[in-house]
Amino acid sequence: MALVGLPTISSLKRDGDLTINHSYFDSDSIIMNEEIPLEIFEPPSDFDHINWIAGKDWNGLNAGVFLLRVCPWSLDLLMRTMTYKHYHPDEEYVFEEQSILARLTEKDEEFKKQSIYVPKGWINAYFYSLQEVKPGLLLSHFPHPDYKWHIYEWLKVLDADRVEKADKRAYNKAVQDTDYPKEIKAFWNAKRRVDKALKGFQRNVDRGADPIQFGLQHDETKGLAEKFREKYNNLKEAATYKTDEPDTLDNLVTEAEEVSMLDPRSCLL
Fold this sequence. Notes:
The protein has 269 residues and is mainly alpha-helical. The chain has eight helices and six strands; from the N terminus they run βββααβαββααααα. The longest helix has 27 residues, at 180-206.
């Protein structure tokens, strides 16, 4: 993975390069913890198809910070982002290129399977969100115009923190002393669980044993099948749009499994 932004498209040269050798943050972001290696965000080997990592807020994708693998796929994504508006002039673009990036990475078949949302606080914590900003985080983002003056004050705090002894520092913490290792492990485990559930269901469909369609054909299982269809659709949508909420993913899988076990004759998952 390389941490890059739209202005660095000319730097995407080495196919598959996983070195953190390009950096881009919005100018209203500051590094809070210099001890966090960006490599900890590298997807594990069973998710090495992931090329794009970002966070989202109440407006959807926030592209102030994102992780992008240096490869032809990424070059295609950035080129499509820059040219998309020219070929789709009638579409709405509330946040300009950010809206386009969200559209491509969430809905376009060429890009969505290689894209994933992580908890935004990992790489793009908002200063004014008390749930996100905490000691040990990589950075803080100040996107709201009313809070940009805080950047100067925080830089003074961080300068003072750096000269403290390691065990006295409030913000520059070693990665093992932060929540990152635990949260990253839980995140990928939740993603594995939801993928396994969805693949198991799809295998039944592919072999002509769609449990929902089978259940809908019989009065005694129709209600169960309809309930499971709702849970399955929620889970499928969450696998794209709510991966940044691993607890939600876990709960959705559990709910679907509970429905599937209500009838021992069925094999919904």
